[in-house]
Amino acid sequence: MRRRDFVAGALGALACLSGCGTEPGRPTPRFFFVAGGAAWEPVAETLTGLLDPADLAQDGTRLTVTGLPALAAAEMNRVGERGTPLARLIGDVEVLVVPGKSRFRDFDAFAAHLVASPAETALVGRKQGESDHLLFGLVARGLGADARVLDYAGYPTCADAADALLAGKAGVAAGPLGQWRERIGEGRLRVLAVSSAERIDGIDAPTLLESGARVDFTDWSAVLGPNDMGEREKARAVDLLDEVVRSERWLKACRVKGWTPIPLLGDDFGVWLGSETARTRTVLGELGLLDTTCGRGCVGGH
């Protein structure tokens, strides 16, 4: 499997988290949101629109909206400092899909083939090393298949991946439910399984948890503060984000935009993020996307 170049923006967003804190003694911490990439711009804009203008300032503390793809890119490129965890916001449920007339009648049929012939099961999704690829790695791990030899092709967008799947270039695709729902509704694609802990209304497919893969997965988005964020600033930012994610205006925005709220704040989010980082690192290694021969000069303990 060839390792590809990854979007520099994701890494830049994490790198810029260092050194963006406010000066000591500032009477009232104020903030501004930036997106760690184009995918997170709508979230950053929505948060900016919902926060009280009195809490916003262009010379305030930078709060970066980022997510799982940036975390994976940072792991692969050995970015050490990632920022201060503040809040997990939303997550996209992913689905495993096949063409309507696929030989894989259900998830069990796909799982049996993946375990028996992982290198001969053509898989497709978005870019290599990002959320869709990670999901296939987690599924392989849960089933006991050899993730290192998976035949995975990554594409820039879900639309490109769908075209490849329907053209017969792959047997199974992974991606966010929201971006596959129209093709599923048209009957062009069937869902083998969903990545959420619970079944999804309107989708006739089991969860990966109940299918034996033991995977609970979302393509999440979150807010991080700068590395040098003071405790007072952090506490204020967490309080403001807590107010936002509990508000009806935020919940309405999520409904309109098709986002699934999965709020987790402050220290609880920090603990979860540590676990998620460890899981991501493990799967990337099993997919052959991490250099495991690193010596003392490596960043972040790798």
UniProtKB/TrEMBL annotation:
<dbReference type="Pfam" id="PF03401">
    <property type="entry name" value="TctC"/>
</dbReference>
<dbReference type="InterPro" id="IPR042100">
    <property type="entry name" value="Bug_dom1"/>
</dbReference>
<dbReference type="InterPro" id="IPR005064">
    <property type="entry name" value="BUG"/>
</dbReference>
<protein>
    <submittedName>
        <fullName>Putative tricarboxylic transport membrane protein</fullName>
    </submittedName>
</protein>
<comment type="similarity">
    <text>Belongs to the UPF0065 (bug) family.</text>
</comment>
